[in-house]
Amino acid sequence: MEYTITIDNFEGPLDLLLHLIKQSDIDICDISILDITKQYMDYIDKMEELNLNIASEYLIMAAELLEMKSNMLLPKPKLEEDEYEEDPREKLIKRLLEYQHYKDITEEFKELELARKDFYTKEPSSLNDFKVTNEYQEDGNVDDLLLAFKKFLERKELEKPLNTKITTKEYSVSVRSNEIRNILKNKNKVYFEELFEDFNKTYIVVTFLSILDLARKGELTINQESNFEKIYLLSKGCE
Q1: What does the alpha-carbon distance between residue 145 and residue 231 come to, in Å, rounded to a whole number?
Q2: For the chain, what is the radius of gyration of the CA atoms?
């Protein structure tokens, strides 16, 4: 693992230079190479007096500053019109400004990291866990209803009731439809054969026609889980 060697909490020579500039209360763009070099070398000398190990990067920066200082003290040759020599001071200022920019961003990231620790997240949940599924699928049709009705009649024919009740009560599709509506309103779902409470021809025919009429009007839904299973009738609003 790589560790950053620091001198008095400074992370590298540029950090030390920024500290010295701030201590002198001057703008980075107004630094004096002579003054900043002197301050920097004084600081390095103090570290050596305390027998502290100084990272090589600090010594490299010291050499660069001394070279800049020497170049500024030496007389400069006259340049031709098309010649240009970069000012070492400008190069150093550019490096310091760039370092200051990244240092400010790092501080922002640290603050964001601390703020993020106050938030807690959870794993995403599947919405299917909260979805209300319908036990019965709307895959029934009138043909299934006719087949179920036929089987119902066949079973009833095989039943031999000991007593047969004869009635002259008349039935109408509209009346029986209202009765079925009320049954579905109270029970929401009803087994198809449950609607045939009385086994006489008129009652059975009227009940079956009422079911077909309600299905045609879209007031009920025919549901069957799979082929040959029981058929259920559901109120249209309870699918």
Answers
A1: 7
A2: 47
Select from 202, 206, 209, 192 the least CA-distant residue to 155. 192
Q: Maximum distance among all alpha carbons in the chain? A: 135
Task: Concatenate the DSSP letters of all residues of 2-66 into one string.
Answer: -----BTTB-SHHHHHHHHHHHTT--GGG--HHHHHHHHHHHHHHHHHTT----HHHHHHHHHHH
Cα(101)–Cα(197) distance, integer angstroms: 87
Using N-to-C axis directions, what is the helix angle for 88-116 and 13-23, rounded to 10°? 100
Q: 141: which residues sit within 8 A by CB, 6+ positions away?
A: 222
Tokens of 182: 């009320």
Q: What's the pLDDT tens digit per position in 180-214?
A: 888 888 887 888 888 887 777 888 888 888 888 88
For 206-238, give the secondary structure using H, E and C.
Answer: HHHHHHHHHHHCCCEEEEECCCCCCEEEEEHHH
Query: Tens of pLDDT along 108-164?
Result: 888 888 888 887 777 777 777 666 555 444 555 677 777 777 777 777 665 655 455
Q: How far apart are CA 164 and CA 166, in angstroms?
A: 6
pTM: 0.38
* DSSP symbols for 77-121: PPPPTT-----HHHHHHHHHHHHHHHHHHHHHHHHHHHHHTT---
